[in-house]
Design goal:
The chain contains five helices and no strands. The chain is mainly alpha-helical.
Length: 79
């Protein structure tokens, strides 16, 4: 399968995701977000959760904050 075939097959979905501000690489952070939700249940301090995630995923705590903020944004109706 060529790239264009895959894009054409998913064109409407890709367009809606783009309009909603979802970046193609956002799929990479689904596991991190799931870990965030699980850790948030057991740890009281958000900072501790962020630092734990940064260590787990080998990124800075600032990157974790930015990723979580991006993923938690509300999608506009009609997207």
């Amino acid at each position: 399968m060529r790239r264009i075939d895959l894009i054409e097959f998913n064109k409407e979905l890709l367009q809606r995701m783009n309009e909603a501000g979802i970046r193609l690489e956002d799929y990479k952070y689904c596991d991190m977000y799931r870990s965030y939700l699980e850790l948030s249940e057991t740890m009281k301090a958000r900072k501790a959760v962020i630092l734990t995630l940064a260590e787990m995923y080998h990124i800075s705590d600032r990157q974790v904050y930015n990723i979580l903020k991006h993923l938690e944004m509300t999608v506009k109706r009609g997207c």
